[in-house]
């Protein structure tokens, strides 16, 4: 029905462990210690260590960082194991995601509700119409049956 709810808080781990094959598949690169990694465009990371078949990636968010998201400003807060991006969405704001334009219809502590329906959908519309000119028009069907209409 073109209405969706998304989480207002997005969690990003401080550390990710993966196989070297998974790393190559995601980045297209062979892992090297200290190499920059951007899995999430908001929180940069780097390869911290490489062991037998495992790559450890550490992410670091700048203190007090604020990021622009399609739904409003996002403030990063740090927890023991992750970074959380808390979106400060405002009810009534227009938003664009991909090819859709919608409106933020509700915001609570945990969720943002997005409404992509037509704002006039389901409404009774009353229109004033003014007729400026009326012309007689001969239909093509009548013209064929009466000998060419001459």
List keywords for this structure.
2 helices; 47% strand; 150 residues
Model description:
It is built from two helices and twelve strands, in the order E-E-E-H-E-E-E-E-E-E-E-E-E-H. The longest helix has 8 residues, at 20-27. The chain is mainly beta. The chain is elongated, with a radius of gyration of 29 Å. The protein has helices spanning 20-27, 140-145, and strands at residues 3-7, 9-13, 15-19, 36-40, 43-51, 54-59, 66-69, 72-78, 82-88, 94-97, 100-107, 111-115. It starts with a strand and ends in a 5-residue tail after the last helix. The model has no long low-confidence stretch (mean pLDDT 88). The protein has a four-stranded antiparallel beta sheet with strand order 1-12-11-10, with no helix packed on it. Strands 2-9-8-7 form a four-stranded antiparallel beta sheet, with no helix packed on it. Helix content is 9%, strand content 47%.
How many separate helices?
2
Unreliable segments of 5+ consecutive residues: none
Give the beta-strand count.
12
Arithmetic mean pLDDT = 88
Secondary-structure-based class equals mainly beta
Rg calc: 29 Å
Element-by-element helix/strand order: EEEHEEEEEEEEEH
How would you name the oligomeric state of the polypeptide chains in this document? Answer: single chain
Task: Estimate what percentage of residues fall within beta strands.
Answer: over 45%
Q: What is the 3D shape?
A: elongated
Major sheet: 4 strands, antiparallel
- Physical arrangement of strands within the biggest beta sheet: 1-12-11-10
